[in-house]
Design a protein that fits this description.
75% helix
């Protein structure tokens, strides 16, 4: 006769059914766990922020040059900076929405 070992109280550590199904769906769709997907979006958002800062510096330096072609550099840096800011915000919003869905806070 075998004796089953008593199970520890796992109520606090066991994910909810929603979290388990969300995790399984994420793993099936993307081949990665939700926290890894969210981490990638957070990294993307931060990276776009750093790129934006680099482009602001390029823009300022080009404005200070007062040389032929500097206005083109300023315009390109402004456009690229806008895109970096916009896509950084997009990645951050997507991460927040996904995190809410995984937590069961959104329908």
């Amino acid at each position: 006769m075998t004796h089953a070992t008593p199970r520890a109280n796992t109520a606090r550590t066991t994910p909810t059914k929603h979290a388990q199904s969300a995790e399984a769906a994420c793993k099936a769709l993307f081949g990665r766990y939700p926290e890894d997907v969210l981490q990638s979006l957070e990294t993307a958002s931060r990276t776009f922020g750093w790129i934006r800062e680099l482009l602001l510096t390029i823009e300022r330096e080009a404005r200070a040059l007062n040389a032929p072609g500097a206005l083109r550099i300023v315009s390109l840096a402004e456009a690229a900076g806008y895109l970096a800011c916009d896509f950084g915000n997009l990645a951050d919003c997507e991460r927040e929405d996904m995190a809410e869905h995984l937590a069961g806070g959104a329908a």
